[in-house]
Specification:
Shape: globular
Number of helices: 17
Strand content: under 5%
Number of strands: 0
Bound molecules: aspartic acid
Radius of gyration: 21 Å
Length: 408
């Protein structure tokens, strides 16, 4: 009954975020107090992790059922192919622009110059070879892919199911109806989980702020600054440009509509984890159809990582400068290509981009120890890049919807 008076969710989430940040900064210097380190931080960690677990609980059934629904509602495989090509082309284009922004900032701001690299511990895990990345897209065992939450093979299987069920006409109708009912249930469940977001986000950011505090960041302030500026430019030039130039709407309309998802991505550091929220925001606030969003967004959360690509550009230059290695234009073009592939292969989970950075470094002969150099501050970089990753997905979903004649 008090519906009208209730504070909007985004405000609650914002308040949770600011309070969590403040609490983290207060707790940070007190972590040698056993009460804080043994009880308060673990408690906050537990609360944050419960929120993350709830989000993760949604991912597989939500993606699976909504992709089947998306494929079935597009129906005609030709239309599906057309939308697919547009989506992937836009994803690649925005990713490449992001890397160029990252490389430019790395060259101009020179974040690694003068940095002492003594004590950098190299613990890079090798990235998977490219052939394996490609092969893994195909679900040899779809049930295993579902159980493991391996998103690309799940997406491929769901697409096949949706298309096949449509092709058999009347006989596939029941299956699609049941699936639609599952998808709707999952959307509702997302809404319920979202109600816990203010508390979950409060706890997550408090733990991060307590761990990284403002002071710890100073030696790496320049690389953090470069990545954050890059992310800001990507959002304010590339995405705003697409929205104004193509969708013919104001950037404010877009960012206002997607702010919950951006904040969730920033705090959870996971594109996949934020997916339920990105789908909701894009459908409810921007008016993109279920048909488009349920196809474009899960795919984006899995393969489109503009922020990660940008970060890899900045970090490759940062590491080269820190190790006093000159990078030629040719090497930087190699970074452009490998970082595009690396960002496609990056899983939408916290810290995945750091592992894929080793692939980019190896491609241009930079020391893999550089990964150890970035590792200490990676969480802070991960927040900004994940935020851009999901914003890019949502911008592309909006553009594709517009191009299919949707009324936004
Ligand atoms: N955390 C990022 C994401 O989920 C991936 C990365 O580590 O770059 O989008």
């Amino acid at each position: 009954m008090t519906d009208k008076k209730e504070m909007p969710l985004i405000w609650k989430i914002g308040i949770g975020f600011v309070l969590g940040l403040l609490l983290g900064f207060v707790l940070g210097p007190m972590t040698n107090n056993p009460f804080i380190s043994d009880y308060i931080i673990p408690l906050l960690n537990l609360i944050g992790n419960i929120f993350l677990a709830l989000l993760k609980m949604l991912i597989v059934p939500l993606v699976f059922s909504s992709i089947i629904m998306g494929a079935a509602s597009i129906g005609d495989p030709k239309t599906l192919g057309r939308i697919g090509i547009k989506t992937v082309a836009l994803y690649l284009l925005t990713t490449m622009v992001a890397i160029v922004i990252g490389l430019t900032l790395g060259n101009v701001m020179q974040p690694g110059v003068g940095l002492s690299i003594a004590g950098a511990a190299g613990e890079a895990k090798a990235a998977a070879p490219l052939t394996k990345v490609i092969l893994d897209i195909f679900p040899a065992n779809p049930l295993k892919a579902l159980v493991d939450g391996a998103m690309l093979p799940v997406i491929v299987f769901a697409l096949f199911l949706g298309v096949s069920a449509t092709l058999i006409g009347e006989k596939g109708r029941k299956f699609l109806e049941v699936n639609e009912s599952i998808a709707e249930t999952m959307y509702k469940m997302t809404g319920i989980v979202m109600k816990t977001a203010p508390v979950g986000i409060f706890a997550l950011i408090a733990v991060t702020a307590a761990k990284y505090g403002p002071a710890v960041l100073s030696p790496f302030a320049k690389v953090i600054f470069a990545v954050y500026i890059g992310c800001f430019l990507q959002a304010s030039i590339v995405y705003s440009g697409l929205i104004t130039g193509y969708v013919k709407k104001s950037p404010m309309w877009f960012f206002r509509g997607v702010r919950e998802a951006m904040l969730a991505a920033f705090v959870t550091r996971s594109s996949s984890g934020s997916l339920p929220i990105t789908m909701r925001n894009v459908q409810e606030n921007l008016g993109v159809s279920e048909k488009i969003s349920s196809f474009v967004l899960p795919l984006g959360a899995t393969i489109n990582m503009d922020g990660t690509a940008l970060y890899q550009g900045v970090c490759a230059l940062f590491i080269a400068q820190a190790f006093n290695i000159e990078l030629s234009i040719g090497a930087q073009i190699t970074i452009l290509l490998t970082a595009t592939l690396a960002s496609i292969g990056t899983a939408g989970v916290p810290g995945a981009g750091l592992i894929m950075l080793s692939m980019v470094l190896t491609a241009v002969g930079l020391p893999i120890e550089g990964v150890g150099l970035v590792a200490g501050i990676d969480a802070v970089l991960d927040m900004a890049r994940t935020c851009v990753n999901v914003t890019g997905d949502m911008a592309v979903a909006t553009v594709v919807a517009k191009s299919e004649g949707e009324n936004l």
